[in-house]
């Protein structure tokens, strides 16, 4: 397998893949689905394989499975010895419940650090914008966390272009990067000003949901209704928009190109995202260590291919 590539994110060197831990103990931040994700043992096995593959960045949030995701990572770190802490960077998020007010953020970061069993969080993001808290106040709060040694770098997630311009109005040093949903089927940030703002403001970009919740795995036909007994069905609030006839054609094209290059559709979709010029690190999730290894291996082993990348970028042309 080709070796994992590393890039700079803020002042840190990160792998071009980050292990997304949204399904450790539950499914994302949904309280209704706590207990429906990976068990602690399964999470530990995924973390072990991620490190073995050269992945150095682990991404979670305080609301994932009501804190269980962070707790699973913390127990894994504790069980693997102090040397493991030096091998990985930990990223978490705050604000999806309780907002981004200073008091709440200070309380939440301490809860996160306790669950992760660490003194410092390498990366911290606002999970969603908080209409009740101006961005200059949020920025001041995160800067205070850095001064206290609780956080090293900070960024923004699930934001619009207006959020980016507002957050930059207070001057530098500001937020360092953006983590939004972006994949072959969900490319809004190309057209809504987010990527343009990132370029002009010098912000890096770490997309999540590279497989559109599984739609790009090739296992769905995207015809008829969304199947209830799947993760797509459980989170239709996030992915129903992408379940469309137009995207069905795009998935079929992806499957055809993947077969021609002896790859899985998931591997090729991840390869495409990895080679987007604005991407620093891609958040990947998997149900098993084997799935994680296949995804990473395939995305890394296919060489740069400008024609294939452009074909996937402009389906039907």
TrEMBL record:
Say yes or no: keyword Oxidoreductase present. Answer: yes
- Which part of the chain is the NADP-dependent oxidoreductase domain? 36-304
**GO MF annotation: an example:** oxidoreductase activity
Stored SUPFAM superfamilies: NAD(P)-linked oxidoreductase
Cleavable signal peptide: none
The keyword Glycoprotein is annotated on this UniProt entry: no
Alphabetized, the UniProt keywords read: Oxidoreductase
The name this protein goes by in its record: Aldo/keto reductase
**Which species does the entry assign this protein to?**
Corallococcus llansteffanensis
